[in-house]
Amino acid sequence: MMTNDFSTPSAFARILGLAGLLPFLAGAVALAALDTPSLKAWAGTALVAYGALIATFLGGIHWGLAMQGVQSVNLRLGWGVTPSLLAWMAVMLPPTIGLPWLAALLVICYAVDRRLYASAGLSVWLGLRLQLTCVATLSCLVGAWAAR
User: DSSP letters along 5-27, please?
Assistant: First the structure.
């Protein structure tokens, strides 16, 4: 079990987490508000790319835990690359398909993290993760709907 300054989300971590939602919200709003096809396509690509980056980040957390020796190391290493590989697929799809794919991936990442964070003694982070996951997922779904 890890004991360090990150055993609970600080106010700064919460602020940064919320700031990380801005590209999700901006992308969804842009897709809903823009009428110009080229700008709408750009906004869709930007939202898919950001969602893929965040999914990759979520997997990377587990590599960090594995590097600190938090058990189960092989499970964490394997899961750590999975979101990146699945998000890469979304980048190659049109936003109408890639964004729902990413929404599902973000929910899957949260579900996996509920188990793996608990085994690392980090369950206290799950409240913040749930909030961030809900807004990011909803943004991807709204963006996909608006991109059609």
Answer: TTSS--HHHHHHHHHTTHHHHHH
CA 95 vs CA 90, 98, 104, 116, 135: distances in Å: 8, 5, 14, 30, 18
Question: Does the residue 112 lie in any domain?
Answer: yes
The average pLDDT across 100-118 equals 97
Is residue 11 included in any domain, yes or no? no
Number of domains in the chain: 1
Dihedral sign computed on CA atoms, order 128, 130, 134, 137: positive
Closest CA to 139 of 19, 24, 20, 18: 24
Residue 62 lies in a domain: yes
| pLDDT per position as a tens digit, 37-68 | 999 999 999 999 999 999 999 999 999 999 99
Residue 30 lies in a domain: yes
